[in-house]
Design a protein that fits this description.
The chain has 609 residues and is an alpha+beta fold. It is built from 25 helices and eleven strands.
Length: 609
């Protein structure tokens, strides 16, 4: 009997250890990781660079034990610098924290001061994104201790993730206010940017945060003055080829402070800025128009300005977007408007290409279009065949622009996961139109081939549920009856048998239930009933308590436990998946990343609540 008890407790502890971390790891990571760690210690820059590059491209969440090991090593492997290309601590922490989890926070807290400034900034961003009470407490503590050492402001990518969630955005604002940094030279632009995002997403109102009106008005006027220095010579090519960074910053600050100014100025004061409509920069003009429309201020001159921009070579995408949001009655319906969106896309595709060298093509012509079936979701897509010239090459070259949902034309937007803009700079005259189309079709098949549809991004099986292991209490209570009754033996026998049976039940579920995201599909293997749905069929996911299905019950006990309920767009249940079968911290971000390009990605109802 003692042997049975010890065996059961041993089994229980092993299961707890196994399932306290994510169920999905990288089975063959140990040898490669050992090699990378050795390369990081090398005195040769080429070796370190190879290891760092591979760690930065790591996209698999490690099991918890391995992730914690990397977080420990991040504070031990030298050299550590503030340059990303030679910063082992940053590379290791990024590899360990594909998704951050509360179990990582004690290790991060212990090692944080040993990391480079760049890594500390990255970890602080992750703590805001995590938003658990533990993470928030550590973020506030660390930031208040070190904010004066450097400007600990999340990078562009981390900021975008923070802004997706109300709680993380409010935490970032709150910490700056608590530390009196709203007008600090390092942080004032970041604070005001956070406030602007909070206002735009309706996380806050202007009365809920401190705004120094005189400061905002003065800053806005200074940016107006700076723009006027550029106005006379303004050309799109100057903005993107000559002025670049300082002018991008000017646009950014002008929009933010114009938004803040509009929260407290009168309607008359805002309309008095209509000279902006005469400026040459379409982007700034549109920012001003959007500010007016948010206040329900409009007139013929404003609407006419948007229509002019819609057919220009700069801002056509943005003009369409604000029309769709504020004045849908003025949206173009003629498919010829697609021409302007496609040409603007072609300009920037060449601009960002290796051959473009941040210059625009001198000419762009649309030669035709063709339709292709979307291999991901089966939608009908439209692609445009374009030819263009550059100043460095006098001949015409070919380009593919797309994909666009055929049923939504005209529109500048296309699925972000299907950004199939492509050019190989092949001379246009080397083939006829049909041959170019055939080449582009082959390119699309190669890019979105069957193999990529089968790539597994997430997998999990049911975890061992220890919540009902309080049955051990009778075992302890039985000692109190040792001299009072012979029935104490039941208390000794029952708990280990219960734990053993629960273990066998857990193994049965693990063998028969599997959830995975494969390509753009959700597979649910439930005993002898494997099923599959495309991710675009899921309209929302609700988290609620449901009675455990008969096949999953332990000893046929009809307990209520938490389940994820997946619904389609007709509010019919697709799947009812037990909470123990998913690792939410891993499943939800994976699902969101695989559906980000959809016009209506799945809604998580418990987040709204």
């Amino acid at each position: 009997m003692v042997f049975l008890l010890v065996t059961a407790i041993f089994i229980d502890s092993k299961i707890e250890s196994k399932y306290s971390s994510w169920s999905r790891g990288v089975d063959d990571m140990y040898a490669p990781m050992e090699v990378l760690l050795e390369l990081l210690k090398s005195t040769k820059l080429a070796d370190r660079k190879k290891a760092i590059d591979e760690l930065h491209s790591w996209n698999e969440q490690l099991v918890m034990e391995d992730a914690l090991t990397l977080l420990e090593l991040a504070g031990q492997i030298w050299p550590i610098s503030d340059e990303e290309w030679d910063d082992p601590s940053h590379a290791l922490v990024k590899a360990a924290c594909v998704f951050i989890h509360d179990d990582m926070i004690p290790t991060l807290e212990k090692n944080l001061v040993k990391y480079s400034y760049q890594t500390i900034n990255f970890v602080l961003s992750l703590l805001i994104i995590n938003q658990s009470d533990t993470a928030k407490k550590l973020y506030k503590k660390v930031f208040s201790q070190i904010y004066f050492q450097s400007d600990f402001i999340p990078s562009y990518d981390e900021r975008n993730v923070i802004f997706e969630h109300k709680e993380s955005t409010l935490t970032a604002i709150e910490v700056l206010i608590e530390n009196n940094l709203t007008l600090h030279p390092w942080y004032e632009w970041y604070y005001h940017y956070l406030v602007v995002i909070g206002l735009e997403k309706q996380y806050i109102t202007s009365t809920e945060v401190p705004i120094e009106k005189d400061f905002i008005t003065g800053k806005l006027q200074s940016f107006f003055d700076r723009y006027l220095e550029y106005h006379q010579d303004y050309k799109r090519t100057y903005v993107y080829e000559a002025w670049k960074v300082p002018y991008y910053q000017l646009r950014f600050y002008l929009k933010n402070y114009l938004t803040l100014y509009s929260t407290y100025c009168s309607e008359e004061e805002l309309l008095n800025l209509q000279n902006i409509l005469e400026w040459k920069d379409n982007i700034i003009r549109l920012d001003y128009i959007e500010t007016l429309w948010k206040r329900n201020l409009s007139n013929h001159a404003i609407e006419q300005t948007v229509q002019e921009i819609l057919v220009s070579n700069e801002g056509t995408h943005q003009a369409y977007t604000i029309l769709k949001k504020y004045k849908p009655e003025f949206l173009p319906t003629d498919s010829t408007f697609q021409t302007y969106f496609v040409k603007e896309t072609a300009d920037f595709l060449f601009y960002n290409s290796s051959e473009g060298f941040e210059k625009f093509p001198t000419e762009v012509e649309i030669m035709g279009s063709f339709q292709e079936n979307d291999q991901l979701y089966g939608d009908n897509l439209t692609y445009y065949v374009v030819r263009f010239k550059s100043a460095d090459n006098q001949g015409w070259m070919r380009m593919l622009i797309g994909a666009y949902y055929t049923h939504n034309i005209p529109t500048p937007w296309h699925p972000t996961e299907l950004e199939d803009g492509y050019t190989d700079f092949l001379p246009w005259d080397s083939k006829n139109y049909e041959e170019h189309v055939e080449d582009f079709r082959k390119y699309l098949v190669g890019k979105h081939g069957e193999a990529k549809q089968d790539e597994v991004f997430y997998q999990s099986t049911p975890t061992y549920d220890r919540h009902n292991n309080l049955v051990v209490l009778p075992f302890l209570f039985s000692f109190g009856l040792l001299w009072a009754s012979d029935w104490f033996i039941i208390g000794l026998i029952f708990p280990p048998i219960w734990i053993l049976l629960k273990y066998l039940h857990a193994k049965r579920l693990e063998k028969n239930i599997l959830v995975q995201i494969r390509g753009y599909y959700l597979d649910y293997f439930y005993f002898d009933d494997p099923t599959c749905v495309t991710l675009n069929q899921i309209s929302k996911i609700h988290y609620e308590k449901r009675t455990v299905a008969k096949r999953e019950r332990f000893f046929f006990i009809p307990l209520k436990t938490w389940h994820y309920i997946l619904y389609d767009y007709e509010d019919k249940e697709i799947y009812v998946i037990p909470g123990s079968s998913l690792i939410e911290d891993y499943f939800i971000p994976t699902l969101q990343s695989r559906t980000a390009h959809l016009s209506q990605p799945p809604v998580l109802t418990w987040e709204d609540e």
